[in-house]
Structure formats: C-alpha cells, structure tokens
Amino acid sequence: MGSMRFSLLCFVTCFILFSLNFDAYEATQFVVGGKENLWRIPTSTNELNTWAQHERFKIGDSIVFKYDSKTDSVLRVEEGDYKKCIKSKPINEYNDGNTTIDLNKSGAFFFISGADGHCEKGEKLEIRVLSHKHSVPPPSLAPKSSPATLTPPAEPPKSGSVGSDLWISDVLIVAMAVGIAMV
After folding, report:
1. H/E/C letters for each residue in the chain?
2. Which residues pair with 128 in a beta bridge?
3. Which one, out of 52, 54, 119, 164, has a CA that is 20 to 30 A from the CA of 9?
4. Is 85 within 8 Å of 68 (Cβ atoms)?
5. Would I find Signal among this entry's keywords (predicted)?
C-alpha cells in the first residue's frame, strides 16, 4: 500500500513540475519602453536601454515598436553600426508604425532609429535575449501576436538566472520528503 502511495505521489509531482516548466516558458510581448509610442527621441540618452535592462527577454518573446511611421522607422543593425549610429546597412528596416518582432534566438539585438539625427540623440535600443535555460518567468504575461521573425547571430547571454531551477528543485525536495513520510 505504501509503495502505491509513493508511486502516485511521484506521478503527481512529475505532472506538477512539467506543468510549471511549460508555464515558465510562455512568451511575453513587450512594448518598447513600456508605454505606447515610446520609440522616439528619449528625454534622457539612455532611457530606452535603462528600460531594457530591467526586463527579462527570452526566446519566444516579442517586442513591439510603436511610432509615427511618417517621421520615424526602426532599423535592426550590427553592434558596430549601433554604437556609431550608422543607418546605411541595416539587417532589417521597419516603417509601419507598429512593428512586432519575434525574439527567436538568444543573444544581442541592436536597433536604431531610421530618422536623421534621432539615433545620435539616444533613440536606440540594445536587447539581450536569454535562452530558456537562463530565463525566469516574467512578472506579467501579455497577449501573443504574429510578429516578424529575427535571427541574430548566436551569442551566449552575459548573465543568467537560475531562479526557476531552484524553485522547481525546492518543490521536488518537499514532494520527496512528503513521499518518504507517507511510506
């Protein structure tokens, strides 16, 4: 009888852990800057990157650029072009005013404004995408969409978090302790 209880508890524990693991990788849609129409010359030169540093971008997430398509655009560029605000050779160019981009690989993504003088005034953004292995569940989940897809050069994330791995380990330890106590 004790062996049957233990087997049932192991099954339930595994089911819960797999369910939690799948929820942890649900995609999030981020509006650049956290507000509507924020793809513009910022009030401080590093405003957009400060916002990005406080977010946890992971594979499967998407970012949305909202801007006036008559006066601005978004260019995805290489890191060197990002640093020097070079617009002449973008990887991708977007100008629809409501651009959604899938983040489908880990690594760095670099974006600058296509409008003259905007990048030099701080309208640029660097995003670091963590792999599933290094990401933690986001604080809130936004609706999914059908965005454009990006494929940046593979680059490992500079830092990571094991928060969700530790939490799952804690649940497993508690479940095993309860199972042993039931035997």
Report:
1. CHHHHHHHHHHHHHHHHHHHHHHHCCCCEEEHHHCCCCCCCCCCCCHHHHHHHCCCEECCCEEEEECCCCCCCEEEECHHHHHHCCCCCCCEEECCCEEEEEECCCEEEEEEECCCCCHHHCCEEEEEEECHHHCCCCCCCCCCCCCEEECCCCCCCCCCCCHHHHHHHHHHHHHHHHHHHHC
2. 108
3. 164
4. no
5. yes
Superfamily of domain 27-161: Cupredoxins -  blue copper proteins (2.60.40.420)
What the block records as the tokens of 176 is 């095993």
Structure-token pair, residue 100? 């959604």
pLDDT one digit per residue (tens) for the chain, 183 residues: 666 666 665 565 555 555 554 445 588 999 998 876 689 999 888 899 999 999 999 999 999 999 999 999 999 999 999 999 999 999 999 999 999 999 999 999 999 999 999 999 999 999 999 986 655 554 544 444 444 545 444 444 444 333 444 445 555 555 555 555 555
